[in-house]
TrEMBL record:
CDD domains recorded: SDR_c
Domain annotation Ketoreductase: ranges: 6-185
Keyword terms, alphabetized: Oxidoreductase
Protein name, UniProt field: Dehydrogenase
Domain of life assignment: Bacteria
Segments traversing the membrane: none
UniProt keyword annotation of Oxidoreductase present: yes
Keyword DNA damage attributed: no
Database matches in InterPro entries: KR_dom, NAD(P)-bd_dom_sf, Sc_DH/Rdtase_CS, SDR_fam
Family membership: Belongs to the short-chain dehydrogenases/reductases (SDR) family.
Organism: Asanoa iriomotensis
Length: 266
């Protein structure tokens, strides 16, 4: 995808990867950016900092399908048909078997069902035109795992699976799909996990280079240009994924040893 002249919607846009993508896409020459977040003030500030004529800020709770549908309507009204929908909002929990049902439900709502709501809202017009692109932020956890965070590991796997389903179902009808799967990124999500002592955050921080959101946004632009299904800002994730597929028992054993090492402070 060539971003020049395109209309783009980004959820979870008030900070982190979402905000970095917004700035990078503006530099790439999009003609319309609809920036959505539950943090209405934050996303409005971002829109104004980029270019008020190029952007529209929308307060949106992605767990509410009606609000997601209204978000797509707002994009159509302001800039025209949506060319690229970036379903980027997500949450971590830092919990395991002690996770409450309410937390599980929220993780499913944001990390999975929001992608479904976005597809339902934006695909009809894309299919009518025979062209469109869905970018879903899924995390390396969707290909590997998330130590110490059962809801995140499970829902991100589901997000990748849904992206795969969309691609194989609609790819021959002009719809392109990419799953963005970074490892450690310097965002409030990771910083909060580190501050709270979550094992998964510490393992992520120790597993490889911590990228900036801007580096991830650059990888996204490259991935969209090549129309790659998996966009991996950390290339080593592909190697880890291959090892996991080739020998799951060995991979699980290595993960157990890693958890033990981190727990002991070694």
């Amino acid at each position: 995808m060539d971003l020049r002249g395109k209309v783009v919607v980004i959820t979870g846009a008030a900070g982190g990867i979402g905000a970095a993508m917004a700035r990078r896409f503006a530099d790439a020459g999009v003609t319309g950016l609809v920036l959505a977040d539950l943090d209405g003030t934050g996303v409005e500030d971002l829109a104004q900092s980029i270019n008020r004529g190029l952007t529209r800020a929308v307060t949106c709770d992605v767990t509410d399908p009606a609000q997601v549908a209204a978000l797509v309507d707002a994009a159509h009204e302001t800039f025209g048909p949506v060319d690229l929908f970036c379903s980027n909002a997500g949450i971590t929990t830092g919990t395991g078997l002690d996770t409450t049902d309410e937390t599980w439900d929220r993780a499913w709502s944001i990390n999975v069902h929001a992608h479904v709501a976005a597809a339902r809202a934006v695909l009809p017009s894309m299919l009518d035109r025979g062209a469109g692109y869905l970018l879903q932020t899924c995390s390396a956890a969707g290909l590997l795992t998330a130590v110490g965070d059962a809801p995140y590991a499970v829902t991100k796997h589901a997000a990748v699976a849904f992206a795969e389903w969309l691609s194989m179902t609609y790819g021959d009808r002009g719809i392109r799909v990419s799953a963005l799967c970074p490892q450690g990124v310097r965002t409030p999500m990771l910083d909060t996990g580190l501050a709270r002592g979550h094992a998964g955050a510490h393992i992520t921080a120790a597993a490889g280079e911590i990228l900036t959101p801007e580096q991830v946004a650059d990888a996204v632009v490259d991935g969209l240009a090549a129309e790659r299904f998996l966009i991996l800002p950390h290339p080593e994730v592909a190697t880890y994924q291959q090892r996991k597929a080739e020998d799951p028992d060995r991979w699980l054993s290595s993960m157990r040893k890693l958890i033990t090492r981190v727990a002991s402070g070694a």
